[in-house]
Fold:
Amino acid sequence: MNLEEGIQRLAERLTGASRVTVLTGAGVSTASGIPTFRDAGGMWKNFRPEEVATPEAFARDPKFVWEWYEVRRQAVLDCRPNRAHEVLAAWSERSPAFRLITQNVDGLHERAGTRNVIRFHGSLFDVGCWEECPQSPHRWRDDTVPFPELPPSCPYCGGILRPGVVWFGEMIDPEVLRRADAALECDLFLSIGTSSQVHPAAALIHTAAALGAFTVEINPEATPASPVPDLSLAGKAEVVLDRVEDVLQRRT
Ligand code: OAD
Structure:
Protein backbone atom coordinates (compact mmCIF):
# COMPACT_ATOMS: atom_id res chain seq x y z
CA MET A 1 0.00 0.00 0.00
CA ASN A 2 1.42 3.40 -0.86
CA LEU A 3 1.45 6.34 1.55
CA GLU A 4 -1.56 8.06 0.00
CA GLU A 5 -3.70 4.91 0.29
CA GLY A 6 -2.57 4.53 3.89
CA ILE A 7 -3.59 8.11 4.64
CA GLN A 8 -7.07 7.47 3.21
CA ARG A 9 -7.35 4.30 5.25
CA LEU A 10 -6.35 6.03 8.48
CA ALA A 11 -8.90 8.78 7.82
CA GLU A 12 -11.60 6.11 7.43
CA ARG A 13 -10.57 4.43 10.66
CA LEU A 14 -10.61 7.74 12.50
CA THR A 15 -14.11 8.47 11.27
CA GLY A 16 -15.35 5.12 12.55
CA ALA A 17 -13.47 4.99 15.87
CA SER A 18 -14.99 6.28 19.06
CA ARG A 19 -11.99 5.62 21.33
CA VAL A 20 -8.66 6.84 19.92
CA THR A 21 -5.35 6.58 21.76
CA VAL A 22 -2.09 8.05 20.47
CA LEU A 23 1.44 7.36 21.70
CA THR A 24 4.03 9.93 20.67
CA GLY A 25 7.81 10.13 20.80
CA ALA A 26 10.52 12.62 19.94
CA GLY A 27 9.79 12.41 16.18
CA VAL A 28 6.65 14.56 16.54
CA SER A 29 8.77 17.44 17.83
CA THR A 30 11.54 17.42 15.21
CA ALA A 31 9.64 19.85 12.97
CA SER A 32 9.62 22.25 15.94
CA GLY A 33 13.42 22.15 15.98
CA ILE A 34 13.87 19.76 18.91
CA PRO A 35 16.34 16.95 18.17
CA THR A 36 15.38 13.31 18.76
CA PHE A 37 17.47 11.05 20.98
CA ARG A 38 18.67 8.29 18.66
CA ASP A 39 18.69 9.68 15.10
CA ALA A 40 21.85 11.13 13.52
CA GLY A 41 22.37 14.39 15.43
CA GLY A 42 20.16 13.07 18.26
CA MET A 43 20.79 13.97 21.89
CA TRP A 44 22.23 10.58 22.80
CA LYS A 45 24.91 11.08 20.13
CA ASN A 46 26.35 13.99 22.13
CA PHE A 47 25.60 12.86 25.67
CA ARG A 48 25.53 9.42 27.18
CA PRO A 49 22.25 8.86 29.07
CA GLU A 50 24.18 7.61 32.08
CA GLU A 51 25.96 11.01 32.32
CA VAL A 52 22.82 13.13 32.43
CA ALA A 53 19.68 11.02 32.78
CA THR A 54 20.09 8.69 35.73
CA PRO A 55 19.71 9.18 39.51
CA GLU A 56 23.37 8.15 39.85
CA ALA A 57 24.50 10.93 37.49
CA PHE A 58 22.47 13.46 39.46
CA ALA A 59 23.84 12.24 42.79
CA ARG A 60 27.37 12.56 41.38
CA ASP A 61 27.04 16.03 39.90
CA PRO A 62 23.63 17.76 40.27
CA LYS A 63 24.92 21.06 38.88
CA PHE A 64 26.16 19.45 35.66
CA VAL A 65 22.87 17.59 35.16
CA TRP A 66 20.85 20.75 35.86
CA GLU A 67 22.94 22.71 33.35
CA TRP A 68 21.94 20.18 30.67
CA TYR A 69 18.26 20.43 31.64
CA GLU A 70 18.40 24.22 31.73
CA VAL A 71 19.70 24.33 28.16
CA ARG A 72 16.85 22.02 27.12
CA ARG A 73 14.24 24.05 29.05
CA GLN A 74 15.37 27.26 27.35
CA ALA A 75 15.55 25.62 23.91
CA VAL A 76 12.02 24.24 24.22
CA LEU A 77 10.61 27.58 25.36
CA ASP A 78 12.04 29.07 22.17
CA CYS A 79 10.22 26.46 20.02
CA ARG A 80 6.61 26.29 18.92
CA PRO A 81 4.22 23.37 18.37
CA ASN A 82 4.23 22.15 14.75
CA ARG A 83 1.51 20.82 12.48
CA ALA A 84 1.67 17.33 14.06
CA HIS A 85 0.89 18.79 17.50
CA GLU A 86 -1.86 20.98 16.05
CA VAL A 87 -3.67 18.14 14.29
CA LEU A 88 -3.54 15.92 17.38
CA ALA A 89 -4.87 18.82 19.46
CA ALA A 90 -7.77 19.23 17.01
CA TRP A 91 -8.62 15.52 17.25
CA SER A 92 -8.55 15.72 21.05
CA GLU A 93 -11.08 18.57 20.89
CA ARG A 94 -13.41 16.60 18.63
CA SER A 95 -13.44 13.31 20.45
CA PRO A 96 -14.02 13.08 24.20
CA ALA A 97 -12.59 9.54 24.22
CA PHE A 98 -9.25 10.71 22.81
CA ARG A 99 -6.16 10.08 24.93
CA LEU A 100 -2.58 10.96 24.16
CA ILE A 101 0.30 9.23 25.90
CA THR A 102 3.54 11.09 25.26
CA GLN A 103 7.11 10.14 26.05
CA ASN A 104 8.08 13.73 25.28
CA VAL A 105 8.92 16.05 28.14
CA ASP A 106 8.79 19.25 26.05
CA GLY A 107 5.16 20.21 26.79
CA LEU A 108 4.42 21.00 23.13
CA HIS A 109 1.25 18.86 23.04
CA GLU A 110 -0.14 20.87 25.96
CA ARG A 111 0.95 24.16 24.38
CA ALA A 112 -0.95 23.14 21.21
CA GLY A 113 -4.06 22.71 23.38
CA THR A 114 -4.27 18.91 23.44
CA ARG A 115 -6.69 17.45 25.96
CA ASN A 116 -6.18 14.26 27.94
CA VAL A 117 -2.38 14.18 27.77
CA ILE A 118 -0.69 11.45 29.80
CA ARG A 119 2.93 12.47 30.39
CA PHE A 120 4.64 9.12 30.52
CA HIS A 121 8.16 10.47 31.19
CA GLY A 122 7.24 13.60 33.19
CA SER A 123 7.97 17.16 32.13
CA LEU A 124 11.01 19.37 31.65
CA PHE A 125 9.05 22.05 33.53
CA ASP A 126 8.24 19.94 36.59
CA VAL A 127 10.54 19.69 39.58
CA GLY A 128 10.60 17.64 42.76
CA CYS A 129 12.56 17.53 46.01
CA TRP A 130 15.63 15.32 45.52
CA GLU A 131 15.35 14.17 49.15
CA GLU A 132 11.57 13.68 48.72
CA CYS A 133 10.98 15.75 51.85
CA PRO A 134 7.59 14.95 53.40
CA GLN A 135 6.41 18.58 53.20
CA SER A 136 6.65 18.70 49.39
CA PRO A 137 4.32 17.31 46.74
CA HIS A 138 5.81 14.52 44.59
CA ARG A 139 6.22 16.91 41.62
CA TRP A 140 5.18 20.49 40.87
CA ARG A 141 5.55 22.89 37.99
CA ASP A 142 8.33 25.48 38.04
CA ASP A 143 9.23 26.92 34.65
CA THR A 144 11.79 29.44 35.91
CA VAL A 145 14.59 29.75 33.35
CA PRO A 146 17.31 30.36 34.33
CA PHE A 147 17.20 29.52 38.02
CA PRO A 148 19.20 32.02 40.14
CA GLU A 149 21.51 29.17 41.14
CA LEU A 150 22.09 25.56 40.17
CA PRO A 151 21.04 23.21 41.55
CA PRO A 152 17.91 25.15 42.58
CA SER A 153 16.83 24.73 46.18
CA CYS A 154 13.68 23.07 47.46
CA PRO A 155 11.30 25.74 48.81
CA TYR A 156 9.95 23.23 51.35
CA CYS A 157 13.13 21.95 53.04
CA GLY A 158 16.06 23.95 51.64
CA GLY A 159 17.57 20.83 50.06
CA ILE A 160 18.02 20.59 46.30
CA LEU A 161 15.48 20.18 43.52
CA ARG A 162 15.63 17.59 40.75
CA PRO A 163 14.11 17.78 37.26
CA GLY A 164 10.63 16.21 37.16
CA VAL A 165 11.44 13.77 34.39
CA VAL A 166 11.71 9.99 34.51
CA TRP A 167 15.32 8.89 34.33
CA PHE A 168 16.75 5.57 33.20
CA GLY A 169 16.39 3.05 35.98
CA GLU A 170 13.37 4.83 37.50
CA MET A 171 9.80 3.56 37.64
CA ILE A 172 6.97 5.25 35.78
CA ASP A 173 4.64 6.95 38.27
CA PRO A 174 2.03 4.27 39.18
CA GLU A 175 -0.91 6.64 38.57
CA VAL A 176 0.47 7.55 35.13
CA LEU A 177 0.93 3.87 34.35
CA ARG A 178 -2.65 3.16 35.42
CA ARG A 179 -4.00 5.92 33.15
CA ALA A 180 -1.87 4.72 30.23
CA ASP A 181 -3.02 1.12 30.72
CA ALA A 182 -6.65 2.26 30.76
CA ALA A 183 -6.06 4.14 27.50
CA LEU A 184 -5.00 0.92 25.76
CA GLU A 185 -8.64 -0.17 25.73
CA CYS A 186 -9.40 1.66 22.50
CA ASP A 187 -10.62 1.16 18.92
CA LEU A 188 -7.66 2.83 17.26
CA PHE A 189 -4.09 3.10 18.58
CA LEU A 190 -1.49 5.23 16.82
CA SER A 191 2.22 5.11 17.57
CA ILE A 192 3.85 8.23 16.15
CA GLY A 193 7.50 9.30 16.00
CA THR A 194 8.95 6.85 18.47
CA SER A 195 11.80 4.40 17.93
CA SER A 196 9.96 1.91 20.19
CA GLN A 197 13.19 1.04 21.96
CA VAL A 198 12.46 2.25 25.48
CA HIS A 199 10.29 0.18 27.80
CA PRO A 200 7.67 0.17 29.13
CA ALA A 201 6.41 2.66 26.49
CA ALA A 202 7.58 0.36 23.69
CA ALA A 203 5.25 -2.39 24.90
CA LEU A 204 2.09 -0.28 24.72
CA ILE A 205 1.38 -0.94 21.04
CA HIS A 206 1.67 -4.69 21.64
CA THR A 207 -0.85 -4.54 24.48
CA ALA A 208 -3.25 -2.32 22.52
CA ALA A 209 -3.12 -4.80 19.62
CA ALA A 210 -3.68 -7.74 21.97
CA LEU A 211 -6.71 -5.94 23.42
CA GLY A 212 -8.18 -5.65 19.92
CA ALA A 213 -7.30 -2.11 18.80
CA PHE A 214 -6.56 -1.38 15.14
CA THR A 215 -2.93 -0.25 15.35
CA VAL A 216 -1.04 2.25 13.20
CA GLU A 217 2.59 3.37 13.13
CA ILE A 218 3.68 6.70 11.65
CA ASN A 219 7.45 6.95 11.27
CA PRO A 220 9.75 7.54 8.29
CA GLU A 221 11.93 4.65 9.55
CA ALA A 222 11.11 1.08 10.54
CA THR A 223 11.28 0.32 14.27
CA PRO A 224 11.33 -2.86 16.36
CA ALA A 225 7.54 -2.42 16.70
CA SER A 226 6.98 -2.23 12.92
CA PRO A 227 5.84 -5.87 12.53
CA VAL A 228 2.92 -5.19 14.92
CA PRO A 229 0.69 -2.49 13.37
CA ASP A 230 -2.20 -3.16 11.03
CA LEU A 231 -1.17 -0.07 9.07
CA SER A 232 2.28 1.51 8.66
CA LEU A 233 2.66 5.01 7.28
CA ALA A 234 6.28 5.65 6.32
CA GLY A 235 6.31 9.42 6.50
CA LYS A 236 6.93 12.37 8.75
CA ALA A 237 4.31 13.00 11.43
CA GLU A 238 3.79 16.66 10.50
CA VAL A 239 3.20 15.73 6.85
CA VAL A 240 1.11 12.58 7.33
CA LEU A 241 -1.13 14.05 10.05
CA ASP A 242 -1.67 17.20 8.00
CA ARG A 243 -2.75 15.07 5.03
CA VAL A 244 -5.07 12.92 7.17
CA GLU A 245 -6.68 16.03 8.64
CA ASP A 246 -7.10 17.43 5.14
CA VAL A 247 -8.94 14.27 4.05
CA LEU A 248 -11.16 14.43 7.17
CA GLN A 249 -12.01 18.09 6.53
CA ARG A 250 -12.96 17.42 2.92
CA ARG A 251 -15.36 14.69 4.02
CA THR A 252 -17.30 16.87 6.47
P1 OAD B 1 14.03 8.34 19.61
O1 OAD B 1 15.06 9.38 19.36
O2 OAD B 1 14.50 7.04 20.15
O3 OAD B 1 13.24 8.02 18.26
C1 OAD B 1 12.69 9.05 17.48
C2 OAD B 1 11.93 8.41 16.35
O4 OAD B 1 11.29 9.45 15.62
C3 OAD B 1 12.77 7.61 15.36
O5 OAD B 1 12.20 6.33 15.15
C4 OAD B 1 12.70 8.45 14.06
O6 OAD B 1 12.70 7.65 12.88
C5 OAD B 1 11.38 9.15 14.24
N1 OAD B 1 11.23 10.42 13.53
C6 OAD B 1 12.18 11.36 13.24
N2 OAD B 1 11.63 12.43 12.63
C7 OAD B 1 10.29 12.16 12.53
C8 OAD B 1 9.18 12.88 12.01
N3 OAD B 1 9.32 14.09 11.47
N4 OAD B 1 7.97 12.28 12.09
C9 OAD B 1 7.81 11.05 12.64
N5 OAD B 1 8.82 10.35 13.16
C10 OAD B 1 10.04 10.88 13.09
O7 OAD B 1 12.90 9.01 20.54
P2 OAD B 1 11.79 8.29 21.45
O8 OAD B 1 11.31 7.04 20.82
O9 OAD B 1 10.81 9.32 21.81
O10 OAD B 1 13.38 8.85 27.56
O11 OAD B 1 12.65 7.92 22.71
C11 OAD B 1 12.04 7.33 23.81
C12 OAD B 1 12.70 7.76 25.08
O12 OAD B 1 14.10 7.56 24.99
C13 OAD B 1 12.56 9.24 25.38
O13 OAD B 1 11.34 9.58 25.97
C14 OAD B 1 13.70 9.47 26.32
C15 OAD B 1 14.77 8.72 25.56
O14 OAD B 1 15.83 8.26 26.30
C16 OAD B 1 13.83 9.34 28.71
O15 OAD B 1 14.54 10.32 28.76
C17 OAD B 1 13.39 8.56 29.91
